[in-house]
From TrEMBL:
This is A-type ATP synthase subunit C. NCBIfam families: AhaC (TIGR02923), PRK01198.1-1 (NF002265). One of its GO terms (biological process) is proton motive force-driven plasma membrane ATP synthesis. It is found in: Cell membrane. Belongs to the V-ATPase V0D/AC39 subunit family. Keywords: ATP synthesis, Cell membrane, Hydrogen ion transport, Ion transport, Membrane, Transport. One of its GO terms (cellular component) is plasma membrane. Gene3D superfamilies: ATP synthase (C/AC39) subunit, domain 3, V-type ATP synthase subunit C domain. Component of the A-type ATP synthase that produces ATP from ADP in the presence of a proton gradient across the membrane. It comes from Haloarchaeobius litoreus. It is a peripheral membrane protein. The gene is atpC.
Amino acid sequence: MSKSDSGSNPEYVNARVRARRAKLYDDEDYRKLVRMGTSEIARYMEESEYETEMNALGARYSGVDLIEYALNRNLAKHFEDILDWSGGQLYDQLAAYLRKFDAWNLKTILRGVYAGSEREEIEADLIRAGEFDDAFLGRLLELQDIEGIVELCSGTIFGPGLDDALEQYQETQALVPLENAVDRAFYEHLLDEVGTVTDVDSPAALYLEFLQAEIDFRNVRNALRLSRSGADIDPTEYFIEGGRLFDADELSQLVTNTDELVARIRDSAYGDDLSAALNELEEAESLIGFENALDAALTEYADHFSNSFPISVTPVLAYIIAKERETDNIRAIARGKEAGLTEEEIEAELVTI
């Protein structure tokens, strides 16, 4: 019997996830890490739940490289565990959602090849938590040109979109069309698998509402990046269908006026959840503070959702997002230390709630 044929078991999985959630780093941990050097950060991680990965990789890597590889391996392990625990519809939902790391890895490889990075540099940023196995990722890493990567992905869910975007990439030599094609394919495939939901109180309906919120938050981020950049780019190129906040035409109109866009978001169903992020945007001189606040808002929204519907997929999705935030924060601290940033500069890069 396959995993998806067995019964859905959210109570069991959520109990296991709560135990994992309790081990995540908190703000006090981050304050300690910001005051440390990279070797001290590595030792701190060895004494926490990263011990297995740090010990396994310590003979091959050191410094920031060791921290990077340990973070990514630990992240993948946790998400593999979740799939191992899950059955039935819950397994199907989580397996589909974790394809976000296939999208992450594909975009990472595209960017690395585009920038002429060494294979080892690209590989350090891969998170092996999706459906792409090591053999397929290895074949992608061997390729030295964008066209070859697109061709190799022809049999995946990303193939059709990448094929369509390749001509625009070749004309402009900009990665934006390809990256957007990857994101769109991921979310479109997710929504297709959910299908039409008629019971608004069903697990499928909760899952769909969560995905729509994530799409909306991503569209907000992309729209405001365009609004602040002043670049001559069609906003609809960034738009991902499937959210509830606004459509592509409305986004195109709002993107030229940040004040109107912020007002539109404040008046939406997400206004309360995004209030802090929107305040941060209005006060920030750059998008960094806003984007971090937006990530925090999505984390908080996910937590609210999981607390409201504890016997569903949402607590697991909230944990996945929180675990990603932890990984991003530790990575930002380690990279900031390596780059010689001040404690204040590093703290500005962190996502906390």
